[in-house]
Amino acid sequence: MSGRVAVVTGGGAGIGRAIVLRLAHEGARVAVLDVRPETAAQTLAQAGGAGLALACDVSDSAAVEETFERIAAELGHPDLLVNNAGAVGVEHVRRVTPLLARQRAEAAGEGVKTPLDALVRLTDEDWRRMLAVHLDGTFYCTRAAVRTMAPRGSGVIVNMSSICGLEGCTGHPHYSAAKAAIIGFTKAAAKELIVQGIRVNAVAPGHVDTSTMRGEVGEQRAAIARSTPAGRLATPDEVAATVAFLAGDDAAFYVGAVLSPNGGLLT
Q1: Is the pLDDT assigned to residue 157 strictly greater than 60?
Q2: Which residues of 240-265 are buried (b: 16+ CB within 10 A; e: fewer)?
């Protein structure tokens, strides 16, 4: 990655921060994008400061266009884009998590009787916000990056999906729908853009041990770790390593692929 310009959305914490640090370690100059400018700046400082830290809401098309114009002017045209920005939906998680725990307990007895009501209680606002950040953001940033990649005949785009996009996650229909849509978008964009020298692929991690929501879903995460054949959750660094592989020249023949570091949950 020496000398290349990388853009990482949602780079302020968690998986995004791990991706930024990995790419910077390999020599890239990274533009760290996040809705929280202070966390983007913290990540950039940890990465050595060779890049930009910018506030950007990826669900805002105009903001994305302005941000990419600034990146091109101050850092250079992007060689790599990692669409990692996401949304959690804290209140939804807080409501569904104890019900999922109750269902697990019931499954060990006479059978599941507790309804989650996750879908019917999902508001229009929650649904649209989840798709806006994950799916719209991936589209807006990809479109902005391709405008400068295509004339140069080269570029790499890595989109962050999830195991929820591959098999669906109980109680999280909006998140699963958004992540599944990213996979479809990745495959279509990959087939179109490879003739212009741009590789597009996706990473669909299993459950990852990040600080985000750790306190909210501690017991659920412990249960998921126990049910994972590998016996643990993934680390952000392991996901970042997968992104770094797809970003590098060793992955030159990967087009529209979906790599899933998930510890054996889905094989």
Answers
A1: yes
A2: bebbbebbeeebeebbbbbbbbbbeb
